[in-house]
Queue: 2 jobs
Job 1
Amino acid sequence: MKKLSRDFYDRDTKEVAQELLGKYLVHHIEDQIRIGRIVETEAYLGGKDLASHSSRGMTERNKIMFGPPGYAYVYLIYGMYYCMNTITEKEGIGAGVLIRALEPIQDIEGRTQGPGLLCNAMGITKQLYGHDLLSDNFYLAEKENDPFKIIKRPRIGVDYAGKWAQKLLRFYIKDNPFVSKR
DNA sequence: CAAATGATAGGC
DNA sequence: CCTATCATTTGT
Protein backbone atom coordinates (compact mmCIF):
# COMPACT_ATOMS: atom_id res chain seq x y z
CA MET A 1 0.00 0.00 0.00
CA LYS A 2 1.20 3.46 -0.83
CA LYS A 3 1.65 5.98 1.95
CA LEU A 4 0.20 9.47 1.50
CA SER A 5 2.84 12.18 1.09
CA ARG A 6 3.24 15.32 3.18
CA ASP A 7 1.97 17.34 0.21
CA PHE A 8 -1.41 15.62 0.44
CA TYR A 9 -2.10 17.31 3.77
CA ASP A 10 -0.65 20.66 2.76
CA ARG A 11 -3.80 21.84 0.96
CA ASP A 12 -7.23 23.32 1.63
CA THR A 13 -8.79 21.51 4.58
CA LYS A 14 -12.15 20.94 2.89
CA GLU A 15 -10.43 19.25 -0.05
CA VAL A 16 -8.30 17.07 2.17
CA ALA A 17 -11.36 16.07 4.21
CA GLN A 18 -13.17 14.88 1.08
CA GLU A 19 -10.18 13.14 -0.41
CA LEU A 20 -9.49 11.32 2.83
CA LEU A 21 -12.69 9.32 2.23
CA GLY A 22 -11.90 5.82 1.00
CA LYS A 23 -8.27 5.99 2.14
CA TYR A 24 -6.79 3.60 4.68
CA LEU A 25 -5.71 4.28 8.24
CA VAL A 26 -2.94 1.86 9.21
CA HIS A 27 -1.62 1.22 12.72
CA HIS A 28 1.05 -1.39 13.50
CA ILE A 29 0.77 -2.75 17.04
CA GLU A 30 3.39 -5.31 18.01
CA ASP A 31 2.77 -8.07 15.47
CA GLN A 32 -0.67 -6.85 14.41
CA ILE A 33 -1.46 -4.54 11.54
CA ARG A 34 -4.77 -2.80 12.04
CA ILE A 35 -6.32 -1.29 8.93
CA GLY A 36 -9.52 0.71 8.57
CA ARG A 37 -11.04 2.43 5.55
CA ILE A 38 -12.08 6.01 6.19
CA VAL A 39 -15.79 6.51 5.44
CA GLU A 40 -16.60 9.71 7.34
CA THR A 41 -14.68 12.91 8.13
CA GLU A 42 -15.23 16.46 9.35
CA ALA A 43 -13.14 19.53 8.49
CA TYR A 44 -12.07 21.87 11.29
CA LEU A 45 -10.71 25.13 10.00
CA GLY A 46 -8.29 27.49 11.63
CA GLY A 47 -8.96 31.12 12.47
CA LYS A 48 -12.64 31.90 13.05
CA ASP A 49 -14.15 28.43 13.00
CA LEU A 50 -15.72 28.43 16.46
CA ALA A 51 -16.23 24.67 16.40
CA SER A 52 -12.50 24.12 16.04
CA HIS A 53 -10.27 23.81 19.07
CA SER A 54 -7.89 26.17 17.34
CA SER A 55 -10.38 29.10 17.22
CA ARG A 56 -9.35 30.40 20.65
CA GLY A 57 -5.70 30.55 19.81
CA MET A 58 -2.90 28.15 20.49
CA THR A 59 -3.11 26.26 23.80
CA GLU A 60 -1.16 23.47 25.42
CA ARG A 61 -3.63 20.89 24.08
CA ASN A 62 -4.08 22.03 20.50
CA LYS A 63 -0.66 23.45 19.68
CA ILE A 64 0.06 20.49 17.42
CA MET A 65 -2.71 21.80 15.13
CA PHE A 66 -0.61 24.87 14.46
CA GLY A 67 2.40 22.80 13.48
CA PRO A 68 3.22 21.47 10.02
CA PRO A 69 0.70 19.22 8.17
CA GLY A 70 0.73 15.41 8.22
CA TYR A 71 0.69 14.90 11.99
CA ALA A 72 -1.90 13.32 14.29
CA TYR A 73 -3.88 15.35 16.82
CA VAL A 74 -5.28 12.92 19.39
CA TYR A 75 -7.17 14.13 22.45
CA LEU A 76 -9.48 12.88 25.17
CA ILE A 77 -13.10 14.04 25.03
CA TYR A 78 -15.77 13.70 27.76
CA GLY A 79 -13.21 11.96 29.91
CA MET A 80 -13.66 8.60 28.15
CA TYR A 81 -13.10 8.69 24.44
CA TYR A 82 -10.23 9.61 22.18
CA CYS A 83 -10.69 11.44 18.89
CA MET A 84 -8.19 11.56 16.10
CA ASN A 85 -7.46 14.33 13.63
CA THR A 86 -4.94 14.81 10.88
CA ILE A 87 -3.32 18.24 10.65
CA THR A 88 -3.75 20.06 7.35
CA GLU A 89 -2.52 23.22 5.64
CA LYS A 90 0.60 25.17 6.42
CA GLU A 91 2.24 25.61 9.77
CA GLY A 92 0.48 28.31 11.81
CA ILE A 93 -3.05 27.86 10.39
CA GLY A 94 -4.46 25.49 13.02
CA ALA A 95 -6.66 23.40 10.72
CA GLY A 96 -7.31 19.68 10.63
CA VAL A 97 -9.64 16.84 9.68
CA LEU A 98 -11.46 14.73 12.28
CA ILE A 99 -11.80 11.04 11.39
CA ARG A 100 -15.37 10.14 12.40
CA ALA A 101 -15.90 6.60 11.13
CA LEU A 102 -14.03 3.65 9.62
CA GLU A 103 -14.90 0.44 7.81
CA PRO A 104 -12.92 -2.42 9.40
CA ILE A 105 -10.46 -4.04 6.98
CA GLN A 106 -7.97 -6.03 9.04
CA ASP A 107 -7.27 -6.97 12.70
CA ILE A 108 -10.02 -4.69 13.97
CA GLU A 109 -12.14 -5.67 16.96
CA GLY A 110 -15.33 -3.93 18.00
CA ARG A 111 -17.23 -1.14 16.34
CA THR A 112 -15.77 1.79 14.46
CA GLN A 113 -18.80 3.96 13.70
CA GLY A 114 -17.93 7.06 15.71
CA PRO A 115 -14.80 9.04 16.61
CA GLY A 116 -14.46 7.53 20.08
CA LEU A 117 -15.17 3.96 19.01
CA LEU A 118 -12.80 3.99 16.09
CA CYS A 119 -9.89 5.13 18.24
CA ASN A 120 -10.65 2.35 20.66
CA ALA A 121 -10.81 -0.27 17.91
CA MET A 122 -7.64 1.00 16.24
CA GLY A 123 -5.70 1.22 19.51
CA ILE A 124 -5.23 4.97 19.21
CA THR A 125 -4.35 6.74 22.46
CA LYS A 126 -2.69 9.97 23.47
CA GLN A 127 0.69 8.32 23.02
CA LEU A 128 0.06 8.99 19.33
CA TYR A 129 -0.48 12.70 20.01
CA GLY A 130 1.71 14.61 17.59
CA HIS A 131 2.74 11.41 15.83
CA ASP A 132 4.10 11.77 12.30
CA LEU A 133 1.66 10.24 9.79
CA LEU A 134 4.53 9.44 7.48
CA SER A 135 6.10 7.14 10.07
CA ASP A 136 6.33 3.38 9.57
CA ASN A 137 3.95 2.23 12.29
CA PHE A 138 1.10 4.70 12.00
CA TYR A 139 0.08 6.30 8.72
CA LEU A 140 -2.54 6.81 6.03
CA ALA A 141 -2.42 4.97 2.74
CA GLU A 142 -3.73 5.55 -0.78
CA LYS A 143 -7.11 4.06 -1.70
CA GLU A 144 -7.73 1.45 -4.34
CA ASN A 145 -9.56 2.55 -7.39
CA ASP A 146 -13.14 2.32 -6.29
CA PRO A 147 -15.52 5.19 -6.95
CA PHE A 148 -18.19 6.36 -4.53
CA LYS A 149 -20.43 9.32 -3.98
CA ILE A 150 -19.58 11.92 -1.35
CA ILE A 151 -22.38 13.39 0.78
CA LYS A 152 -21.99 16.77 2.51
CA ARG A 153 -23.75 17.53 5.79
CA PRO A 154 -23.45 19.91 8.76
CA ARG A 155 -21.08 18.77 11.47
CA ILE A 156 -22.29 16.85 14.49
CA GLY A 157 -22.17 17.80 18.18
CA VAL A 158 -21.03 21.37 17.63
CA ASP A 159 -24.26 23.32 18.25
CA TYR A 160 -22.40 25.74 20.48
CA ALA A 161 -20.49 27.08 17.46
CA GLY A 162 -23.37 29.27 16.21
CA LYS A 163 -23.46 29.73 12.45
CA TRP A 164 -20.35 27.58 12.10
CA ALA A 165 -22.39 24.60 13.28
CA GLN A 166 -24.42 24.74 10.06
CA LYS A 167 -21.62 24.78 7.55
CA LEU A 168 -21.29 21.74 5.33
CA LEU A 169 -17.97 20.51 6.65
CA ARG A 170 -18.91 16.89 7.31
CA PHE A 171 -18.31 14.40 4.52
CA TYR A 172 -19.15 10.72 4.17
CA ILE A 173 -19.48 7.97 1.63
CA LYS A 174 -23.02 7.50 0.38
CA ASP A 175 -24.75 4.26 1.38
CA ASN A 176 -21.80 3.01 3.44
CA PRO A 177 -23.16 1.05 6.45
CA PHE A 178 -20.21 2.03 8.67
CA VAL A 179 -20.98 5.75 8.70
CA SER A 180 -22.12 6.79 12.18
CA LYS A 181 -25.84 7.23 12.78
CA ARG A 182 -27.80 10.43 13.58
C1' DC B 1 -33.08 11.96 28.31
C1' DA B 2 -29.03 11.57 31.62
C1' DA B 3 -24.91 9.47 33.35
C1' DA B 4 -20.11 8.29 33.05
C1' DT B 5 -15.51 10.60 33.67
C1' DG B 6 -11.24 13.53 33.31
C1' DA B 7 -8.55 17.06 31.04
C1' DT B 8 -8.68 21.76 30.29
C1' DA B 9 -9.86 26.65 29.19
C1' DG B 10 -11.20 30.62 31.17
C1' DG B 11 -12.74 33.03 34.94
C1' DC B 12 -11.83 34.47 39.66
C1' DC C 1 -6.83 27.84 42.22
C1' DC C 2 -11.81 26.19 40.76
C1' DT C 3 -15.24 24.51 37.99
C1' DA C 4 -18.29 24.54 33.89
C1' DT C 5 -17.80 22.51 29.81
C1' DC C 6 -16.79 19.31 26.21
C1' DA C 7 -15.44 17.56 18.19
C1' DT C 8 -19.10 10.98 22.74
C1' DT C 9 -21.36 6.73 23.73
C1' DT C 10 -24.52 3.88 26.05
C1' DG C 11 -28.31 2.60 28.51
C1' DT C 12 -33.03 3.62 30.71
Job 2
Amino acid sequence: MDLRDLDSSTCSVARSLEIVGRPWVLLVLREAFYGLRRFSDIQEHLGVSRSVLAARLDEMVEEGLLERRPYREPGRRERTEYVLADKGRDLYPVIVALRQWGDRHLAGDDGVPVHAEHAGCGASVRAELVCEAGHVVDSGDVERRPGPGMRRRDAVAG
Amino acid sequence: MDLRDLDSSTCSVARSLEIVGRPWVLLVLREAFYGLRRFSDIQEHLGVSRSVLAARLDEMVEEGLLERRPYREPGRRERTEYVLADKGRDLYPVIVALRQWGDRHLAGDDGVPVHAEHAGCGASVRAELVCEAGHVVDSGDVERRPGPGMRRRDAVAG
DNA sequence: CGGCTGGGTTCGACGTGCGAACTCAGCTAG
DNA sequence: CTAGCTGAGTTCGCACGTCGAACCCAGCCG
Protein backbone atom coordinates (compact mmCIF):
# COMPACT_ATOMS: atom_id res chain seq x y z
CA MET A 1 0.00 0.00 0.00
CA ASP A 2 1.26 3.34 -1.02
CA LEU A 3 0.95 6.61 0.82
CA ARG A 4 -0.25 8.13 -2.41
CA ASP A 5 -3.45 6.12 -2.09
CA LEU A 6 -4.39 7.76 1.18
CA ASP A 7 -7.74 9.45 1.09
CA SER A 8 -6.84 13.04 1.53
CA SER A 9 -9.75 13.97 3.73
CA THR A 10 -9.02 11.40 6.44
CA CYS A 11 -5.74 13.11 7.13
CA SER A 12 -5.45 14.98 10.38
CA VAL A 13 -3.66 17.77 8.59
CA ALA A 14 -6.69 18.36 6.38
CA ARG A 15 -9.08 18.15 9.31
CA SER A 16 -6.96 20.54 11.33
CA LEU A 17 -6.79 23.00 8.50
CA GLU A 18 -10.56 23.11 8.20
CA ILE A 19 -10.54 24.83 11.57
CA VAL A 20 -7.13 26.40 11.85
CA GLY A 21 -6.77 27.31 8.20
CA ARG A 22 -9.61 29.79 8.20
CA PRO A 23 -8.47 33.37 7.86
CA TRP A 24 -7.41 35.08 11.09
CA VAL A 25 -7.76 32.02 13.33
CA LEU A 26 -4.05 31.56 14.00
CA LEU A 27 -3.53 35.30 14.33
CA VAL A 28 -6.32 35.55 16.88
CA LEU A 29 -4.66 32.73 18.78
CA ARG A 30 -1.34 34.52 18.60
CA GLU A 31 -3.02 37.56 20.15
CA ALA A 32 -4.43 35.31 22.82
CA PHE A 33 -0.95 34.02 23.59
CA TYR A 34 0.22 37.61 23.84
CA GLY A 35 -2.48 38.17 26.42
CA LEU A 36 -5.09 40.08 24.43
CA ARG A 37 -8.55 39.08 25.42
CA ARG A 38 -10.98 41.84 24.64
CA PHE A 39 -12.80 42.19 21.36
CA SER A 40 -11.76 45.73 20.60
CA ASP A 41 -8.12 45.13 21.54
CA ILE A 42 -7.88 42.19 19.20
CA GLN A 43 -9.78 43.97 16.49
CA GLU A 44 -7.60 47.04 16.64
CA HIS A 45 -4.36 45.14 16.96
CA LEU A 46 -5.00 42.79 14.07
CA GLY A 47 -6.78 45.28 11.86
CA VAL A 48 -9.48 42.77 11.06
CA SER A 49 -12.99 43.96 10.40
CA ARG A 50 -15.40 43.72 13.30
CA SER A 51 -17.88 41.57 11.43
CA VAL A 52 -15.29 38.97 10.53
CA LEU A 53 -13.75 39.00 13.98
CA ALA A 54 -17.12 38.48 15.62
CA ALA A 55 -17.84 35.53 13.36
CA ARG A 56 -14.40 34.01 13.87
CA LEU A 57 -14.57 34.35 17.64
CA ASP A 58 -17.97 32.68 17.64
CA GLU A 59 -16.59 29.79 15.63
CA MET A 60 -13.50 29.50 17.77
CA VAL A 61 -15.58 29.37 20.94
CA GLU A 62 -17.83 26.83 19.26
CA GLU A 63 -14.79 24.72 18.35
CA GLY A 64 -13.45 24.90 21.86
CA LEU A 65 -10.33 26.88 21.02
CA LEU A 66 -11.38 29.83 23.17
CA GLU A 67 -13.63 30.29 26.15
CA ARG A 68 -15.97 33.20 26.64
CA ARG A 69 -15.69 34.65 30.09
CA PRO A 70 -17.65 37.54 31.55
CA TYR A 71 -15.40 40.21 32.93
CA ARG A 72 -16.08 43.42 34.78
CA GLU A 73 -13.97 46.45 35.53
CA PRO A 74 -15.23 48.52 38.45
CA GLY A 75 -17.61 51.25 37.33
CA ARG A 76 -17.90 49.59 33.95
CA ARG A 77 -20.47 47.45 32.29
CA GLU A 78 -19.90 43.72 32.11
CA ARG A 79 -17.91 42.61 29.11
CA THR A 80 -16.88 39.41 27.44
CA GLU A 81 -13.32 38.32 27.16
CA TYR A 82 -11.93 35.44 25.19
CA VAL A 83 -9.35 33.27 26.88
CA LEU A 84 -7.43 30.31 25.57
CA ALA A 85 -8.94 26.91 26.19
CA ASP A 86 -6.70 23.86 26.30
CA LYS A 87 -7.58 22.95 22.75
CA GLY A 88 -6.42 26.37 21.63
CA ARG A 89 -3.32 26.34 23.79
CA ASP A 90 -2.31 23.06 22.20
CA LEU A 91 -1.90 24.91 18.93
CA TYR A 92 1.07 26.75 20.32
CA PRO A 93 3.58 24.42 18.63
CA VAL A 94 2.01 25.27 15.28
CA ILE A 95 2.47 28.97 15.95
CA VAL A 96 6.05 28.50 17.11
CA ALA A 97 6.83 26.42 14.04
CA LEU A 98 5.36 29.10 11.79
CA ARG A 99 7.28 31.81 13.57
CA GLN A 100 10.54 29.91 13.22
CA TRP A 101 9.98 29.36 9.56
CA GLY A 102 9.26 33.04 9.07
CA ASP A 103 12.29 34.05 11.11
CA ARG A 104 14.43 31.80 8.97
CA HIS A 105 13.09 32.36 5.50
CA LEU A 106 11.30 35.68 5.54
CA ALA A 107 13.88 37.55 7.58
CA GLY A 108 15.39 40.69 6.13
CA ASP A 109 14.81 42.90 9.11
CA ASP A 110 16.19 43.61 12.49
CA GLY A 111 15.66 40.33 14.23
CA VAL A 112 13.08 38.37 16.08
CA PRO A 113 10.25 40.55 17.37
CA VAL A 114 9.12 38.16 20.04
CA HIS A 115 11.19 35.85 22.09
CA ALA A 116 9.69 32.82 23.83
CA GLU A 117 11.35 31.32 26.82
CA HIS A 118 10.84 28.37 29.11
CA ALA A 119 9.22 29.44 32.35
CA GLY A 120 11.21 26.81 34.18
CA CYS A 121 14.74 27.61 33.11
CA GLY A 122 14.62 30.82 31.07
CA ALA A 123 16.17 29.26 27.97
CA SER A 124 14.59 30.12 24.64
CA VAL A 125 12.00 27.79 23.19
CA ARG A 126 11.95 26.29 19.72
CA ALA A 127 9.71 23.83 17.90
CA GLU A 128 11.71 20.76 16.91
CA LEU A 129 10.98 17.41 15.42
CA VAL A 130 12.08 14.78 17.89
CA CYS A 131 11.88 11.03 17.71
CA GLU A 132 10.95 8.87 20.62
CA ALA A 133 14.54 7.85 21.07
CA GLY A 134 15.13 11.50 21.98
CA HIS A 135 17.02 12.59 18.85
CA VAL A 136 16.32 15.90 17.21
CA VAL A 137 15.29 15.01 13.68
CA ASP A 138 15.96 16.97 10.52
CA SER A 139 13.03 17.42 8.13
CA GLY A 140 14.95 15.53 5.49
CA ASP A 141 15.42 12.49 7.71
CA VAL A 142 11.79 11.50 8.08
CA GLU A 143 10.18 8.49 6.46
CA ARG A 144 6.43 8.35 6.18
CA ARG A 145 4.57 5.06 6.40
CA PRO A 146 0.91 4.09 6.47
CA GLY A 147 -0.54 3.99 9.96
CA PRO A 148 -3.44 2.02 11.46
CA GLY A 149 -6.13 4.52 10.49
CA MET A 150 -5.20 4.69 6.86
CA ARG A 151 -7.94 4.40 4.31
CA ARG A 152 -7.66 3.93 0.60
CA ARG A 153 -9.28 6.47 -1.63
CA ASP A 154 -11.06 3.86 -3.67
CA ALA A 155 -12.04 1.38 -0.99
CA VAL A 156 -14.55 1.97 1.76
CA ALA A 157 -13.19 -0.68 4.08
CA GLY A 158 -9.89 -2.42 4.10
CA MET B 1 7.18 47.74 26.82
CA ASP B 2 4.30 45.38 26.50
CA LEU B 3 3.89 42.58 24.02
CA ARG B 4 0.47 43.97 23.30
CA ASP B 5 2.07 46.98 21.65
CA LEU B 6 3.79 44.89 19.03
CA ASP B 7 2.89 45.85 15.52
CA SER B 8 1.06 42.81 14.30
CA SER B 9 2.44 42.86 10.78
CA THR B 10 6.10 42.68 11.79
CA CYS B 11 5.45 39.32 13.37
CA SER B 12 6.94 36.34 11.62
CA VAL B 13 3.74 34.44 12.23
CA ALA B 14 1.78 36.97 10.20
CA ARG B 15 4.38 37.03 7.45
CA SER B 16 4.47 33.26 7.29
CA LEU B 17 0.72 33.06 7.10
CA GLU B 18 0.61 35.36 4.10
CA ILE B 19 2.31 32.59 2.19
CA VAL B 20 1.41 29.44 4.04
CA GLY B 21 -2.10 30.49 5.02
CA ARG B 22 -3.40 30.62 1.49
CA PRO B 23 -5.86 27.88 0.69
CA TRP B 24 -4.32 24.53 -0.35
CA VAL B 25 -0.70 25.53 0.22
CA LEU B 26 -0.09 23.28 3.20
CA LEU B 27 -2.08 20.47 1.63
CA VAL B 28 -0.03 20.68 -1.54
CA LEU B 29 3.09 20.50 0.61
CA ARG B 30 1.70 17.50 2.41
CA GLU B 31 1.23 15.82 -0.97
CA ALA B 32 4.79 16.72 -1.82
CA PHE B 33 5.99 15.06 1.39
CA TYR B 34 4.00 11.99 0.42
CA GLY B 35 5.87 11.95 -2.86
CA LEU B 36 3.28 13.32 -5.28
CA ARG B 37 4.87 15.54 -7.89
CA ARG B 38 2.74 15.63 -10.97
CA PHE B 39 0.00 18.15 -11.56
CA SER B 40 -2.78 15.70 -12.28
CA ASP B 41 -1.87 13.43 -9.37
CA ILE B 42 -2.00 16.30 -6.94
CA GLN B 43 -5.15 17.68 -8.47
CA GLU B 44 -6.96 14.38 -8.37
CA HIS B 45 -5.76 13.48 -4.90
CA LEU B 46 -6.65 16.77 -3.29
CA GLY B 47 -9.81 17.41 -5.26
CA VAL B 48 -8.80 20.98 -5.90
CA SER B 49 -9.83 22.66 -9.11
CA ARG B 50 -7.23 22.83 -11.83
CA SER B 51 -7.35 26.57 -12.11
CA VAL B 52 -6.66 27.08 -8.43
CA LEU B 53 -3.98 24.41 -8.33
CA ALA B 54 -2.17 25.93 -11.30
CA ALA B 55 -2.21 29.34 -9.64
CA ARG B 56 -1.09 27.98 -6.28
CA LEU B 57 1.76 25.97 -7.80
CA ASP B 58 2.95 29.06 -9.66
CA GLU B 59 2.97 31.04 -6.44
CA MET B 60 4.68 28.30 -4.52
CA VAL B 61 7.42 28.03 -7.12
CA GLU B 62 7.71 31.80 -7.10
CA GLU B 63 8.05 31.77 -3.33
CA GLY B 64 10.70 29.09 -3.47
CA LEU B 65 8.67 26.41 -1.70
CA LEU B 66 8.71 24.12 -4.71
CA GLU B 67 10.96 23.67 -7.71
CA ARG B 68 9.75 23.00 -11.19
CA ARG B 69 11.66 20.21 -12.83
CA PRO B 70 11.21 18.86 -16.34
CA TYR B 71 10.60 15.16 -16.41
CA ARG B 72 10.14 12.66 -19.18
CA GLU B 73 8.81 9.15 -19.25
CA PRO B 74 9.94 7.13 -22.28
CA GLY B 75 7.51 7.51 -25.17
CA ARG B 76 5.82 10.40 -23.40
CA ARG B 77 5.94 14.10 -23.82
CA GLU B 78 8.04 16.14 -21.45
CA ARG B 79 6.19 17.14 -18.31
CA THR B 80 6.76 19.31 -15.33
CA GLU B 81 6.96 17.97 -11.85
CA TYR B 82 7.02 19.94 -8.65
CA VAL B 83 9.52 18.89 -6.03
CA LEU B 84 10.12 20.26 -2.57
CA ALA B 85 12.71 22.96 -2.24
CA ASP B 86 14.49 23.50 1.06
CA LYS B 87 12.22 26.37 1.95
CA GLY B 88 9.23 24.10 1.51
CA ARG B 89 10.81 21.19 3.32
CA ASP B 90 11.44 23.45 6.29
CA LEU B 91 7.68 23.69 6.73
CA TYR B 92 7.54 20.08 7.75
CA PRO B 93 7.42 20.89 11.46
CA VAL B 94 4.32 22.98 10.84
CA ILE B 95 2.63 20.06 9.13
CA VAL B 96 3.65 17.64 11.86
CA ALA B 97 2.38 20.02 14.52
CA LEU B 98 -0.95 20.35 12.71
CA ARG B 99 -1.24 16.62 12.32
CA GLN B 100 -0.54 16.05 15.99
CA TRP B 101 -3.13 18.58 17.00
CA GLY B 102 -5.68 16.95 14.72
CA ASP B 103 -4.82 13.48 16.00
CA ARG B 104 -5.30 14.69 19.53
CA HIS B 105 -8.35 16.90 19.30
CA LEU B 106 -10.20 15.86 16.18
CA ALA B 107 -9.82 12.14 16.67
CA GLY B 108 -12.96 10.04 16.72
CA ASP B 109 -11.81 7.50 14.21
CA ASP B 110 -9.59 4.53 13.89
CA GLY B 111 -6.21 5.98 14.53
CA VAL B 112 -3.42 7.82 12.86
CA PRO B 113 -3.51 7.46 9.09
CA VAL B 114 0.12 8.27 8.54
CA HIS B 115 3.03 7.47 10.72
CA ALA B 116 6.29 9.38 10.48
CA GLU B 117 9.51 7.85 11.61
CA HIS B 118 13.13 8.85 11.97
CA ALA B 119 15.17 7.50 9.08
CA GLY B 120 18.09 7.05 11.42
CA CYS B 121 16.56 4.99 14.19
CA GLY B 122 13.02 4.07 13.13
CA ALA B 123 11.39 5.67 16.16
CA SER B 124 8.29 7.74 15.53
CA VAL B 125 8.63 11.48 15.10
CA ARG B 126 6.75 14.22 16.92
CA ALA B 127 6.89 17.99 16.94
CA GLU B 128 7.79 19.23 20.40
CA LEU B 129 8.63 22.52 21.98
CA VAL B 130 12.11 22.26 23.39
CA CYS B 131 14.20 24.82 25.20
CA GLU B 132 17.87 25.28 24.61
CA ALA B 133 18.62 23.54 27.86
CA GLY B 134 17.16 20.47 26.22
CA HIS B 135 13.92 20.24 28.18
CA VAL B 136 10.67 19.40 26.47
CA VAL B 137 8.41 22.35 27.22
CA ASP B 138 4.67 22.33 27.78
CA SER B 139 2.64 24.98 25.97
CA GLY B 140 1.56 26.36 29.30
CA ASP B 141 5.13 26.87 30.49
CA VAL B 142 6.20 29.46 27.96
CA GLU B 143 6.79 33.11 28.71
CA ARG B 144 6.85 35.56 25.86
CA ARG B 145 9.08 38.62 25.92
CA PRO B 146 9.90 41.37 23.46
CA GLY B 147 12.86 40.54 21.25
CA PRO B 148 15.35 42.77 19.40
CA GLY B 149 13.22 43.23 16.29
CA MET B 150 10.14 44.41 18.13
CA ARG B 151 8.42 47.50 16.92
CA ARG B 152 5.70 49.50 18.57
CA ARG B 153 2.47 49.98 16.73
CA ASP B 154 2.43 53.71 17.34
CA ALA B 155 6.11 54.56 17.01
CA VAL B 156 8.18 54.36 13.85
CA ALA B 157 11.45 54.04 15.68
CA GLY B 158 11.57 53.20 19.20
C1' DC C 1 -33.09 61.77 30.29
C1' DG C 2 -29.55 62.25 26.83
C1' DG C 3 -25.07 61.25 25.35
C1' DC C 4 -21.02 58.14 25.41
C1' DT C 5 -18.72 53.72 24.85
C1' DG C 6 -17.88 48.84 24.21
C1' DG C 7 -19.35 45.21 21.63
C1' DG C 8 -21.32 43.72 18.37
C1' DT C 9 -24.82 43.15 13.70
C1' DT C 10 -26.31 44.54 9.08
C1' DC C 11 -25.45 45.99 4.45
C1' DG C 12 -23.70 46.65 -0.15
C1' DA C 13 -19.31 46.36 -2.90
C1' DC C 14 -15.51 44.08 -4.17
C1' DG C 15 -12.20 40.14 -4.53
C1' DT C 16 -11.17 35.62 -4.87
C1' DG C 17 -11.99 30.68 -5.07
C1' DC C 18 -14.65 27.56 -7.45
C1' DG C 19 -16.17 23.93 -11.24
C1' DA C 20 -16.90 23.45 -16.04
C1' DA C 21 -15.66 24.21 -20.48
C1' DC C 22 -12.15 25.50 -23.67
C1' DT C 23 -7.22 25.50 -25.50
C1' DC C 24 -2.95 23.79 -26.93
C1' DA C 25 1.26 20.96 -27.52
C1' DG C 26 3.17 16.63 -28.41
C1' DC C 27 2.68 11.78 -28.85
C1' DT C 28 0.60 7.81 -31.27
C1' DA C 29 -2.48 5.08 -34.24
C1' DG C 30 -4.15 4.57 -38.72
C1' DC D 1 -0.56 13.35 -43.04
C1' DT D 2 -4.36 13.48 -40.26
C1' DA D 3 -7.33 12.42 -36.39
C1' DG D 4 -7.59 11.57 -31.74
C1' DC D 5 -5.88 11.33 -27.03
C1' DT D 6 -3.77 13.19 -22.84
C1' DG D 7 -1.54 16.17 -19.61
C1' DA D 8 -1.33 20.77 -18.30
C1' DG D 9 -2.98 24.67 -18.16
C1' DT D 10 -6.38 29.08 -19.15
C1' DT D 11 -10.82 31.38 -19.42
C1' DC D 12 -15.38 32.27 -17.84
C1' DG D 13 -19.33 33.12 -15.05
C1' DC D 14 -21.06 32.21 -10.52
C1' DA D 15 -21.10 32.07 -5.56
C1' DC D 16 -19.24 32.81 -1.32
C1' DG D 17 -16.55 35.42 2.00
C1' DT D 18 -14.12 39.54 3.44
C1' DC D 19 -14.19 44.30 3.81
C1' DG D 20 -15.32 49.11 5.64
C1' DA D 21 -18.98 51.86 7.06
C1' DA D 22 -23.15 52.51 9.10
C1' DC D 23 -26.30 51.10 12.32
C1' DC D 24 -27.89 49.13 16.88
C1' DC D 25 -28.25 48.21 21.71
C1' DA D 26 -27.21 47.86 26.67
C1' DG D 27 -25.43 49.94 30.55
C1' DC D 28 -23.06 53.63 32.89
C1' DC D 29 -22.47 58.63 33.81
C1' DG D 30 -23.49 63.60 33.95
